[in-house]
Fold Nitrous-oxide reductase.
Amino acid sequence: MSDKKKAIENLGRRHFLRNSAVTGVAGAGLAGGFGAGALMSSQEAKAAEDGIEVAPGELDEYYGFWSGGHQGEVRVLGIPSMRELMRIPVFNIDSATGWGITNESRRILGDSARFLNGDCHHPHISMTDGRYDGKYLFINDKANTRVARIRLDIMKTDKITTIPNVQAIHGLRLQKVPHTKYVFANAELPIPQINDGRDLETPDNYFTMFNAIDAESMEVAWQVIVDGNLDNTDADYTGRFVASTCYNSEKGMTLADTMRAERDWVVVFDVDAIEAAVSAGEFETLGDSDVPVLDGRKGSQLTRYIPVPKNPHGLNTSPDGQYFIANGKLSPTCTIIGIDKLPALFDDAIAPRDTVVGEPELGLGPLHTTYDGRGNAYTTLFIDSQVAKWNIEDAIRAYNGEEVNYLRQKLDVHYQPGHNHASLTESRDADGKWLVVLSKFSKDRFLPVGPLHPENDQLIDISGEQMKLVHDGPTFAEPHDCILLRADQLSPSRVWTRDDPFFAETRAMAEADGVNLETENKVVRNGNKVHVYMISVAPQFGLSEFKVKQGDEVTVVVTNLDQVEDLTHGFVMVNHGASMEIGPQQTSSVTFTADKPGVYWYYCSWFCHAMHMEMTGRMLVEKA
């Protein structure tokens, strides 16, 4: 054995796990965090000393968008500083901005405004010709089966769609070429079709679906029923193929049942064939939904099922467009699928496993793979608490019988990493500079804060031959995944435009009331509905008081006429649960009931001026 190979085999600090039973993933040892008390390696300590610093006044090179996990939001970070820049509320209630409270946000939330929670997993940025175009970011809600779109010019959610006929949207990716026409979303958990009380105790009749959402209209374009369940997904660089992992081919209803099979599968979808079938009317609809539903179960011409080991999780497309790589989770392997072999598979010219061109053994618990654009892959090993760097072409050569070492390095991370993401890696432009690893446990990394610990995000420099850990930091409520793009690929607005569609319905209401939002402070009554219009210019509201009657439904509309960048106002009506943000040149509105007589103050909640504390007014509520 060569010295290099010996060195690589000795990189880990958890060799006792090599002989552990794979089923330990489900056991108490996992929650304990194997090796949780281990100290940093000397390499990590050196990397920490060399840490990356972005000095005051300097700007980061990359934007990072983090899913907010079960916080239900998206977080914006600068890379490499790892400074949190903004939080974008999506499926959560946010009192700072008024998301879920204002009329504008509740219109976007629609019927799902009744849900007070969300579980974000996978943020992804729209593309043109396989490159980030900076227009939209899309994010899923596993908890309530939704997909949301964020406008990246204003960093606000502008559309939310509830997906019919399915439950628990998990894996989400975008069509890469010629542009993001579709958002592809996996519903993870099978349910009866139709789920109206039938087949409650007949799991054989449970199914789930692969879903395509029109990226512009945010309407569901079509759904494809599959065998088993669906986990993560990714698209190719031709626009034709999308692949998804299935970790529960058994359709087990218990943990043990989901782990019986030695192989599960990757489902490959032929988008061209699906679109043709929809155009030909070869679909049905279910229940009260009019979304076309197609049958993609085994034997369908729309899908192919490629066996892979065992309970696969992540599915990641290489930036050169050559491979889908599925991560084994309960197998120490990743499976490399040659995308150029998929047309022959759909023509039934080859068997499903003939598409597999490599299956490297990497370590325990491979979950997700990302890339540096130089032919190397980086895979998180959940149980080993490591990232494995390996060369794709060398792994393929080894699969074909050559004596070649495809492993380049293993780096300890802290602890139990899930997703990882390298800069620009989901596009053609993967540049191999930075790798973010999102670890599920922090254990001993930070000051204790009670029984609930933070998670740990780590930044790794991958620009050289060796990975170097340069930063770690605590984060709240399992951010789960992230995506990085260059700062010059985004052009966020600095000030709102007055014709922005975000508050178009509020402008229409003002027009119907005969009110000019830019010039008038006015109270308009229609029965027990009262519309209060006011202008804000730091440090005062256009109305210092207004009068209503007990029981009135009051809608306050505030237009911020300040044109200075970063001069945001707030509006809070004391003791009425009403608050909102009004950015420069924005109009915002909030509705509440004046249910008790008396004097109620309102005030500006975003610091705007030296006289900010004096920016107040009174609502006078007369007895009914």
In short: Residues 4-48 have pLDDT under 50 and may be disordered. The two ends are 90 Å apart (CA to CA). The domain at 501-622 is CATH 2.60.40.420 (Immunoglobulin-like). Residues 443 and 450 are 11 Å apart (CA to CA).
